[in-house]
Amino acid sequence: MAEQGEEDREYREYRRLEECEEDSPPGEEEEEQLLLHVTEGPTDSWHHIKDLDISLTPPYIYQFHQRNGFACVLLSDVLELVQFLFVVTFSTFLLCCVDYDVLFATRPLNHSHVPERAKVTLPDAVLPAPQCARRLRSSGWLLFLLVLAGAVWLCRLVTALRRLVGYWEIRSFYIRALGIPAEELCNHSWQSVQARLLALQRRQPLCVPRRELTELDIHHRILRFRNYTVAMVNKSLLPVRFRLPLLGPVVFLTRGLQFNLELLLFRGPAALFQNTWSLRPQVKRAGARRALARGL
C-alpha cells in the first residue's frame, strides 16, 4: 500500500500533454501516452513547448546566433527596408526627372545661360520638380508600379516587425535560459550554444520529445528541408541536371528555380508538409503516393 501511495503521488505530479502533433497518420500507430512534468516555480513562454521546431528554425535560436544577435538583426532589417525605398525612389528619379537629350548632348541647352560649347553638368540635365511631377502623373504604368512597390514595402515592414518580436523573445531566451548575455554572443560558437541548449533540456525540459534531445535531433530540425532537397537531387527527382552539347552534364539551379521548388514542395498550399516539421498523413501512406504524385 505504501508503494501504491508513492506511485499515486508521483503520478499526480504529471499531467497529459493535450493536442500533441502526431508524426504518423491515424490508424497506423497506436497513440503514445506522453506525460508532461509540471515543474514548480515561475514558468516562461519557452517551457514545455509542444512543437520544438518553432524554437530551432529561423528566425529563432539558430538564425539568431548566425545573425549575431538582436542589434545586428535590427540594423540589417532597417537597412533592407531603406535599400528598397532608395532603389524605388532613385529608379523613379531616373525615369521621370532626367533630360537624357541634354545629358548626352544630343540637344543644346535651352534653360541655362551658358555658351553652347560649355560642359554639360548634372544640374543641367535634371528637370524642375513641377515638370518631373507632370511626367510622373502622365505615366499610368509607372504609377501602378509605384503603388505595387509601396504594397510590397508595407508587407516587408510588417514581416520585419513580426520577426523582430520573435527575435526579442529569443534574446530573452539566450539571456535568461542559456545564460549568454547579448554582448557576449559573438564569443560563443554554435556548438557552445547547442551544448547549453541540450543541458537546459535535461535540466528543465523545453518540450516532451519521444526520446532525449540530441545534436542530431537539432540538426535534423534545422536542415530538414535542405536534407529533403539534397536527397531528391541525389535520386535525380529534381530537374537540376542537364546534358548540353559539347559541355556534357551540367547542374543548373537558379535562385528563382530554387524558390519555386521550395514553394511547391515545402511551403505552398499543396506542399508535402502540413507544418514546418510534419509530413501530411496521406503522404506517408504507400497506397496513396501514386495518386499524390500525379496530382503534384
From TrEMBL:
- Is Chloroplast included in the keywords of this UniProt record? no
The annotated topology with respect to the bilayer is:
Multi-pass membrane protein
Query: Where are its TM segments located?
Result: 141-161
Primary subcellular site in the record, as a coarse category? membrane
Under the heading Pfam families, the entry gives: ATG9
Q: Where is the composition biased (Acidic residues)?
A: 19-31
What is the top-level taxon of the source organism? Eukaryota
Under InterPro entries, the record lists:
Autophagy-rel_prot_9
In the record, biological process GO terms are: autophagy of mitochondrion; lipid transport; piecemeal microautophagy of the nucleus; protein localization to phagophore assembly site; reticulophagy
- Similarity comment: Belongs to the ATG9 family.
Q: What does this gene product do?
A: Phospholipid scramblase involved in autophagy. Cycles between the preautophagosomal structure/phagophore assembly site (PAS) and the cytoplasmic vesicle pool and supplies membrane for the growing autophagosome. Lipid scramblase activity plays a key role in preautophagosomal structure/phagophore assembly by distributing the phospholipids that arrive through ATG2 from the cytoplasmic to the luminal leaflet of the bilayer, thereby driving autophagosomal membrane expansion.
Q: What is this protein called?
A: Autophagy-related protein 9
Task: Give the species this sequence originates from.
Answer: Poecile atricapillus (Black-capped chickadee)
